[in-house]
Amino acid sequence: MPNASFEPPRRILMGPGPSDVHERVLNAMARPTIGHLDPAFVSLMDEIKDLLRYVFRTRNALTMPVSGPGTAGMESCVVNLVEPGDRVIICHNGVFGGRLADMARRAGADVVVVEDEWGRAVSPDRLEEALARNPDVDLVGFVHAETSTGALSDAQTLARIAHDHDALAIVDTVTALGGVPVEVDAWGLDAVYSGTQKCLSAPPGLSPITLNEEAAARVRERKTPVQSWFMDLNLVMAYWGGGKRSYHHTAPVNALYGLHEALLMVKEEGIENAWTRHRRNHDALRAGLEVLGLRFIVPEAERLPELNAVSVPEGVDEGKVRGRLLDEHGLEIGAGLGGLAGRIWRIGLMGYASRPENVLLCVKALGEVLSDEGVVLDVDGALHAAESALAASTR
Amino acid sequence: MPNASFEPPRRILMGPGPSDVHERVLNAMARPTIGHLDPAFVSLMDEIKDLLRYVFRTRNALTMPVSGPGTAGMESCVVNLVEPGDRVIICHNGVFGGRLADMARRAGADVVVVEDEWGRAVSPDRLEEALARNPDVDLVGFVHAETSTGALSDAQTLARIAHDHDALAIVDTVTALGGVPVEVDAWGLDAVYSGTQKCLSAPPGLSPITLNEEAAARVRERKTPVQSWFMDLNLVMAYWGGGKRSYHHTAPVNALYGLHEALLMVKEEGIENAWTRHRRNHDALRAGLEVLGLRFIVPEAERLPELNAVSVPEGVDEGKVRGRLLDEHGLEIGAGLGGLAGRIWRIGLMGYASRPENVLLCVKALGEVLSDEGVVLDVDGALHAAESALAASTR
After folding, report:
1. Contact status of B326 with chain A (Cβ, < 8 Å)
2. Quick one: B129 and B274 in the same domain?
3. Quick check: ipTM above 0.90?
4. What sign for the dihedral angle of Cα B320, B321, B324, B325?
5. pTM for this one?
6. B239, B267, B295 - which closes a domain
7. Do B41 and A248 touch (CB under 8 A)?
8. Which of A343, B13, B138, B146 has the smallest C-beta neighbourhood within 10 Å, fewest atoms?
């Protein structure tokens, strides 16, 4: 039976999330718990909604954090928008597209999956074809930033195609939000969900969502009840909406303190500056990894700066390398998922973890471990390339 | 646009939850975030499962915290155990029984609701009659400790009646766990969920659940998929079960640090001692409230020590009194829910908030505010009664 407090080891989190959490956010979570209907807490909720509108670039009234991880936000969007028998197209270019399709089926949708290559952006042409072949589609779902492969899709174009066919777009921005532009209003995204533990650098456990008026109206005007009571936005918004707040579930008070502080830090930096920072640190990491001979699995134009998926060199035990990075350098990088398990590493540069010193740490540590495992490579050259890229980008 | 960190006001939380969180638990949540697949985190998960088995008094393998508030734990039990067309009986003696029935309907069950009086325990006779009238019932759901009324039901007897009719029992112990005996194994409870923010005194946002082998087998052997992907225990247990852990969703890492510390504190105290403490502080509060002329809505034998529901005196503006307690004394007590809104106060003595000084604070503050609002009463006498009860109980 356990009898001691848990003291986590010190890690640098450069996997696919969670990312490193700033001390300000950690400290915010340790503030005393107050009631979920306390007037001071209701003010905090309003501030969180405003800050989420800032990062989502939206004026949507229905903008709030779901009281569960990103997967709960995904399911909230699906089960609120899907009615049994609805026709749904899901673009599938990685693990999370597959999850979206599974959820839509469980919600009773008639699902058509458009298969794309893993490691590539979703093909707008293939979506267009699928919509032409399948009349009366109600919803299109796709992943803006595929966390399983590091591919970035053109959310604006995909949403426009959906709208051209009178379908609404559900968009997964779990790994996108805060790391690359996500323009909910300008791109006309209808229902968007994200996570807190990626480029927002809050701890995992909450899922920001935002629905525009078209999507919100569809939820209000459903003919059948939402299959989930917990996620039913018609009930949830009695608590998270404006005006008098009535009890739905007990909000995760301290986690919301953390999210508020993390969002405040994004606003202090300026979200455009955060996008630039993610891009610069990615460029430097890429320069270093390329000298180490590591190949990115995603073509350059479709690459997500905050999640770098590279092939494991021939003959290398990928799990052993990750284990050594963790044990010897306190550095976490991620493994592949699904069909990419054992074949790639996923190196995150997300949120607070996206810092020059982490770029250099990763290039050095990975280079040293790979050398030690018998891969011939130029660690000094790689470090030099990363340093040069950093120097050039901040000049 | 918000531009300052949130500093919560200092409160004493004596509502229906969240309850006060100990500094040790708050500090635990502020420790650095690590990865949800980190070997150190996997060890923490194992410890949390062991500690949950300790508080639930069970050896159930399937024991874990759901990554969402108590409502998500409730829905996890319902959607995993209910298949479309299943026959379900829900005992309804308050808000949470009603919620259980709603969830079971949304999961496709054929639901029979057994109505009990609000403010009373669930009637075993009425459940027995309902089971006799309705053959082939698959599941019986009831609330052990009704948070909306403060009524404690006889979970052991109700579960036995369900078993006599070959039905499994889903039991809501959100407000019970840690405050009154909950004997999952000895009473044969099949699927049990709870919350963290009541008598365990961790922050809200997680929901411990435990399923015995009969319930777990029913989930494994379902003919239809669980309607929720997020809550599907067949998927969740690939992460929370033993052996190799595979990714399902990103666990709320820091919230779990807090839960671990809170459970450790329960174990340090000894759960039987925690039950005794809740009983003693309730007795003292009751003594004080009775001198203030406040009447409990639940008969003494059916009363929950950790949640004291009392009628609002005639002519008193209950919202104004709660507002003054909060503003002038930093004391939160709860309002009524549903049909009891405006008619009762719910005064919690849960977890870390169940302390002698809080009993006295509440009697004094409530007495003073009520006096000030024109109710004639004996504040000194009430304080004396509470103090005497405390002195007698610890002698």
Report:
1. yes
2. no
3. yes
4. negative
5. 0.98
6. B267
7. no
8. A343
